[in-house]
Amino acid sequence: MSIADVIAGTRTAVAADSAAASATFRVRHELVGPTEVHARTGSGHRVTIDEPPVLGGANAAPNPVEYALTAIGSCQAITYRFWAEQLGIAFDTLSIDVEGDLDVRGFFGIDPTVRPGYQEIRVTARVSGPETPERYEELQRAVDEHCPVLDMFANPVPVSLQLEVV
User: Fold this and answer.
1) Reported pTM
2) What is each CA distance from 151 to 60, 91, 133, in whole angstroms?
3) Handedness of CA 22, 142, 122, 51 (dihedral sign)
4) For residue 100, is it within any domain?
5) Tens digits of per-residue pLDDT, 63-88?
């Protein structure tokens, strides 16, 4: 199935029933080592998360903040593909570089004025192809407006937290 078919099918399904636009994603995480976590997504994928030795881990896998950068970069790439299709913009190559600055004083509680998350994230998209720079800028605007993970980073998302003692 092509991206164009996916877009057309989704538009048709949502037009017929707006409830078809809603989805809930789930991931279950279990701590299996000092900092190693095994996660299983609702779609059945397994992911390992760990910290580097400097943070007490064995570096068995990327750490959570690296996965966050992975999420935004991969979502940008996928959103470029979808919106290029919708706007009729061709490209030959696309790469996304993402880097973020994090100050561990927030995580360790050393300085309460430092947030524990990223202080800044920089995303660079590199595209080549037959279109004009203006067309690629149009594509970038559409991507930045519609990328779900970018939206979660750029705008507050309500988060409910609870503890169950079993």
Assistant:
1) 0.92
2) 30, 24, 24
3) positive
4) yes
5) 999 999 999 999 999 999 999 999 99
